[in-house]
Amino acid sequence: MPDLRLTTWQVERLFTADASTSASALHALVSAGFLTPGPDGSYGRTEHLTSAPVDTSTGVPTRIMPSPWRRILCLVDLDNENRRSLTTAAHSALQYATTLAVTHRARVTALRVIPQRLSESARTSAANRLRRSVLGEPMRGLIDVLVTSGSPNEEVLRVAQDIHADLIVIGRSGRPDGESLPHLPEILRQALCHILIVHPSGRAAVA
């Protein structure tokens, strides 16, 4: 709600969440630029807690605020059993990415990395399947589709730099044998922008 301000303790009570979950959610929303902590320790929507610039011609405060995210990179993959559907982790990640895109008027690049050994025709086919799967996503008009080949870790960093990504969104599968980024700690150290990690439970945290 626009004028609602809550302390951490009030967030825990309102959402019946434990302290760790509440703190993680608040940290993610502050990092995303949606919430801002007030001087009294409570949290509220950024546009209502931040001093707005004043229009010099009218003397009226404006509501235009800089957005922290302009280009969001989201790593996705297709389900092994249904190659026309996104994996659960990819679907969750793309939902988070498009929600942020709507809030901050950003664009999302859905990136799928395929093995280097695959032919150009296989790469084209993979891109077409990904586009069809994205057509079923909400806010699909904000999503660009990109398929590359090579090491997922290297490609995520390369593409993020190429498109000047402000944020990378990655969904975790919850299975050690099903992670799309086996060397995720390296990505966290080397990325030049924030990374939003979406947990299988639906929770997310910014690194």
Query: Which CATH class of the largest domain applies here?
Result: Alpha Beta
* Rg: 19 Å
Strand order, main sheet: write it out.
Answer: 5-4-3-6-7-8
Backbone structural class: alpha/beta
What ranges have pLDDT less than 50 throughout 5 or more consecutive residues? 60-65
Q: What is the general shape?
A: elongated
Q: What separation lies between the terminal Cα atoms?
A: 26 Å
Task: Describe the model.
The chain is of the alpha/beta class and 207 residues long. The protein folds into two domains: 1-66, Arc Repressor Mutant, subunit A (Orthogonal Bundle); 71-206, HUPs (Rossmann fold, 3-Layer(aba) Sandwich). The protein is 36% helix and 19% strand. It is built from seven helices and eight strands; from the N terminus they run ααββαβαβαβαβαββ. The protein has helices spanning 8-14, 19-31, 46-49, 88-104, 120-134, 152-162, 184-190, and strands at residues 35-37, 43-45, 71-75, 107-114, 143-149, 167-171, 194-198, 204-206. The strands form two sheets. It has a six-stranded mixed β-sheet with strand order 5-4-3-6-7-8, sandwiched between helices. Helix 1 crosses helix 2 (19-31) and helix 6 packs parallel to helix 7 (184-190). The radius of gyration is 19 Å and the shape is elongated.
List keywords for this structure.
207 residues, Rossmann fold, 2 domains, six-stranded mixed sheet, two-stranded antiparallel sheet, 8 strands, elongated
Q: Secondary-structure map with pairings?
A:
Blueprint (H helix, E strand, L loop, with lengths): L7 H7 L4 H13 L3 E3 L5 E3 H4 L21 E5 L12 H17 L2 E8 L5 H15 L8 E7 L2 H11 L4 E5 L12 H7 L3 E5 L5 E3 L1
Parallel strand pairs: 3-4, 3-6, 4-5, 6-7
Antiparallel strand pairs: 1-2, 7-8
